[in-house]
UniProtKB/TrEMBL annotation:
Biased composition, class Basic and acidic residues, residue ranges: 60-70
Native organism: Nesterenkonia aurantiaca
Pfam families given in the database record: PhdYeFM_antitox
Spans traversing the lipid bilayer: none
UniProt cross-references to InterPro entries, sorted A to Z: Antitoxin_Phd/YefM (IPR006442), YefM-like_sf (IPR036165)
Name under which the protein is recorded: Antitoxin
Domain of life of the native organism: Bacteria
Described function: Antitoxin component of a type II toxin-antitoxin (TA) system.
Family membership: Belongs to the phD/YefM antitoxin family.
Length: 86
């Protein structure tokens, strides 16, 4: 799930209402801004973070497998697993 629009709040508002903003971040990412528009952080739920990290790892694994196939023409399952540290 990709969020093209997310809630934004200022750093001072975040400091004043941390609990509410952390609750909001369980439903959608919350962008923390300072000096009006400078993006300082994005707060997300642990589940969102875990899914994002897993997606990046999956993408890296897929890219590594494709690269290995193109290098030698063929790679054994054992070689691929070793290269991907699996």
């Amino acid at each position: 799930m990709y969020y093209s629009v997310m809630t934004s709040t200022t750093l001072s508002d975040f400091r004043a209402h941390q609990s509410k903003i952390l609750d909001d971040a369980q439903r959608e990412p919350v962008e923390i801004l300072s000096r009006g528009s400078r993006r300082r952080a994005v707060v997300v739920s642990p589940e969102f973070f875990d899914r994002a990290i897993q997606a990046l790892e999956d993408q890296t694994d897929t890219h590594g497998a494709a690269e290995a196939r193109s290098e030698n023409g063929s790679v054994s399952h054992q070689e691929l697993m070793a290269e991907l540290d699996l």
